[in-house]
Amino acid sequence: xxxxxxxxxxxxxxxxxxxxxxxxxxxxxxxxxxxxxxxxxxxxxxxxxxxxxxxxxxxxxxxxxxxxxxxxxxxxxxxxxxxxxxxxxxxxxxxxxxxxxxxxxxxxxxxxxxxxxxxxxxxxxxxxxxxxxxxxxxxx
Length: 140
Hints:
The protein is mostly helical. The chain is 56% helix and 0% strand. The chain has three helices and no strands. Helix 1 (2-21) packs antiparallel against helix 2 (30-73). The protein is flat. The two termini are 69 Å apart. The mean pLDDT is 76.
């Protein structure tokens, strides 16, 4: 309900501003201004009602959590565990260090423009660059 009131108030404000911008005398749109002021009051009441419902709901949740589990276990809720179980059996697994893979990678960024070249020439240029940068030869 609060969201609908806010949306209606926004629409009324837009209509009011448009009517004023069109030069309609203020006394002819006074009824719209009054409705906007009443709607602001309804918005404030709806926001207060909503806040009260949130507080009551949170209190009810807290009560249910503590009383339900407390009655089942004879005390309040306790945490059983906080660690996630790993699917890896570390007793049977061996950790082997490997060299960093990025040590052997070469990064190359190239921008290609194709304004004055025909497609064949452009493709040959890109292909030549890709061939040279993808080679495994470290001398380049």
